[in-house]
TrEMBL record:
The organism's place on the tree of life at top rank: Bacteria
Enzyme Commission numbers on file: 4.2.1.59
Active site per the UniProt annotation: H50
InterPro entries in UniProt: FabA_FabZ (IPR013114), FabZ (IPR010084), HotDog_dom_sf (IPR029069)
CDD domains listed in its UniProt record: FabZ
Listed name of the protein: 3-hydroxyacyl-[acyl-carrier-protein] dehydratase FabZ
Subcellular location: Cytoplasm
Catalytic activity: a (3R)-hydroxyacyl-[ACP] = a (2E)-enoyl-[ACP] + H2O
Species of origin: Noviherbaspirillum suwonense
Length: 156
């Protein structure tokens, strides 16, 4: 079994609190798939406003957690760690569906698999589960670029 703890994850992802949304990698298979977790706690800042009377993890952050898991899989598969100018960008999000809310005390299990990789663009099939029940699913497309690359789309 291939695992990563939080310190190893930080070697591959540039994100930091409050936007680092992967706490542990339970297993991965290079070029195939990854299983990671996000422990959702009542201390998450976004619960103060989303929503005070019924805390719900924002869907956009659940998608981001899946994307971070996908980025980890891509870096691991390529056999390299990002440098100080590496940035992973979304190219597309398709078929996103939210099946159940995720809140404090939940553990979001993220399962991501590579559908294909071509010319630096990866397509992933992903889903997030809580207690074995699907909370969300989506197809994600991502690419890696240098932050100094002038050919990037504006605004990203």
């Amino acid at each position: 079994m291939n695992t990563l703890d939080i310190n190893q994850i930080k070697e591959y992802l540039p994100h930091r609190y409050p936007l680092l949304l992967v706490d542990r990698v339970l297993d991965y298979e290079l070029g195939k798939s990854i299983v990671a977790i996000k422990n959702v706690t009542a201390n998450e800042e976004y619960f103060n406003g989303h929503f005070p009377h019924k805390p719900v993890m924002p869907g956009v952050l659940m998608i981001e957690a899946l994307a971070q898991s996908a980025a980890l899989l891509a870096f691991l598969t390529m056999g390299r760690k990002p440098d100080s100018t590496s940035v992973v960008y979304f190219v597309g999000i398709d078929a996103a569906r939210f099946k159940r809310p995720v809140g404090p005390g939940d553990q979001l299990r993220m399962e991501v698999e590579i559908i294909r990789s071509s010319r630096g663009i990866y397509k992933f099939k992903s889903r997030g589960l809580v207690d074995g029940e699907v909370a969300l699913e989506a197809e994600l497309m991502c690419t890696m670029r240098s932050s100094t690359d002038a050919s990037q789309p504006a605004g990203q």
